[in-house]
Amino acid sequence: MLTNSKITKSISSDHDVSLIKNIISILFFSVLTGISAGLKIEIGAIPITMQTLIVLLSGAYLGSKKGAISQLTYLTIGITGIPWFTRGGGLAYILSPTFGYLLGFIPAAYIVGMLIKENKNSLSIIKSFIAGNFFIYSFGILWLLRTFSLSQTLTIGLYPFILGDILKIFLAIIILKNIKHEK
User: Fold this and answer.
1) For position 4, what pLDDT does the model report?
2) Across residues 1-24, what is the average pLDDT?
3) What is the maximal distance between C-alpha atoms in the chain?
4) How many helices (H) and strands (E) does the chain have?
């Protein structure tokens, strides 16, 4: 026979397990974002990295709020001094030309999670990933415009990344479909 105290303890225990799973998932994607920053090709002021792939997946897999929190966690830990941004870490990294892109990770993960929640077919996933990239590019380009002209900004901060980001979108779809089947 179940008593009120056993039911309450069971509900509390389930809540604790869920909370722990959420924290682990958020930290997992934060760490993956940090690791993916190290997978880079230096091409100038802004390197090519695998971070955007992880940002898109964080929103798609974790959902809007947890995806955004995972990217906020990544950013916060990097600003506190952990050198897991593309070229280091710490508070001074705010002055880096790449910092705007990092700021864009948070709304990008959120919008991807929000849009995918509504519709999970391949076309909708592609559209949500494009929207996520739009936020990353927007924040990055606006940040670069503090230092460079519009023409320079587009040349160093947008054009070199379009083809790679299209490929990362399709890779993210493949990964997401395989992750969803395993759940």
Assistant:
1) 55
2) 71
3) 73
4) 7, 2
pLDDT, tens only, 41-78:
999 889 999 999 999 999 999 999 999 999 999 999 99
User: Is CATH 1.10.1760.20 the right assignment for the domain spanning 16-182?
Assistant: yes
Q: Are residues 140 and 176 in contact, defined by beta-carbon separation less than 8 angstroms? A: no
Distance of CA 170 to the CA centre of its chain: 16
What is the end-to-end Cα distance of the chain in Å, rounded? 33
* d(C-alpha 146, C-alpha 169), whole Å: 28
CA dihedral 113, 119, 122, 128 (to 10 degrees): -40
Q: From the centroid of its chain, how far is CA 103? A: 10
Mean pLDDT of all residues in the chain?
A: 91
For residue 84, which of 73, 95, 69, 100 has the smallest C-alpha distance?
A: 73
- Judge if pTM exceeds 0.85: yes
Q: Where are the domains of the chain?
A: 16-182
